């Protein structure tokens, strides 16, 4: 573990240095944000779920905290909407194994498309907040779809993960799943076969071991289906109802931005997942796929390893960040913001986008360090000179939150 810790620490430090990460101190407590959010959790969201008050408190601080840190530019209206939708999305994912709620979740998108009311109160609240978010984007159809549709498809992504990882399915379906290049162990049951992820091979029911190497992109596809990255990206491009930045200013960077949102989270989550022994995450799935493809790595026999995947993703984040910075003219915009001359071709929309991207990026990364769930204390000293970045903020209650992204 010590060797792995050193490897991950070195790669993360180099990555954050290379992309020019800047840590900004936590903002002052904003009662205009936290008080209405707290009331909403207690009096609106709480009655729709079976979660206890301590659980809701954890959810409040994790969903509220990441939005506060990542979107310093957002209006209070948008900040609260993103925090509420994030909280409900986490609740839905947590509740998906409840048989009664599961039946309602399966019908969520169907009812939404048909204009039918959601019978479950939690799903009705989710739908109502999606509608409110849609209204904020007015007549901007493209940006509205970026901001709204991921919250809808997220439901189906959660269902997909449930079916792949934890469903009770028929033996016939086991063969289909194995050919879909995911390995499971077979646990005999009465009428069904229970599938659980395994990391050391495929079920004997397959005709032959699955060719993970033929499905190199499936791990990222699975990751993207249960993510809400396009919606979070849209939050960077519009700070309030009135701001209307031309589409051509940002649309080309969306693919790299979505990649950044997803993979940076995976990189910063990986340490705590290794400690917990989790192996059905993107990095492990991608490693198995690349190893099966015959890719050469740094293993004892030249095989592809988890460390190779980790390093590769860090390099890909470097590339994505460089392209985003270039498309947004970040360096030139920051020079103009410092008052340097000779930058008259930089317009107000360029400055706004650059500032919003920079604020989001630094806040998003910093939040991972401030959240104890990610167990990144071993890196805090290197970047912040302190191991108690969040302790002065809201005390131990904040720093031990679920932070379940």
Features:
405 residues, mainly alpha, Farnesyl Diphosphate Synthase, three-stranded antiparallel β-sheet, 3 strands, 63% helix, disordered C terminus, Trichodiene_synth, carbon-oxygen lyase activity, acting on phosphates, lyase, Terpenoid synthase, Isoprenoid_synthase_dom_sf
Protein model, in words:
The chain is mainly α and 405 residues long. The chain has a single domain (2-399), classed as Orthogonal Bundle (Farnesyl Diphosphate Synthase). 63% of the residues lie in helices and 3% in strands. Strands 1-3-2 form a 3-stranded antiparallel β-sheet. A hairpin with a 4-residue loop joins β2 and β3 (193-197).
CATH topology: Farnesyl Diphosphate Synthase
**Given this structure, which CATH class is correct?**
Mainly Alpha
The tally of helices reads 19
CA-to-CA gap between the ends? 24 Å
* Adjacency order of strands in the biggest sheet: 1-3-2
State the order of secondary-structure elements, H for helix, E for strand.
HHHHHHHHEHEEHHHHHHHHHH
Give the number of DSSP strands.
3
SS-derived structural category: mainly alpha
- Biggest sheet descriptor: 3 strands, antiparallel
Q: Strand portion, in percent? A: under 5%
Total domains, how many? Answer: 1
The CATH superfamily appears as: Farnesyl Diphosphate Synthase
Query: How much is the radius of gyration in Å?
Result: 22 Å
CATH architecture: Orthogonal Bundle
Helix content estimate: 55-70%
3D shape: globular
- Rounded average pLDDT: 83
Low-confidence stretches: 167-209, 387-405
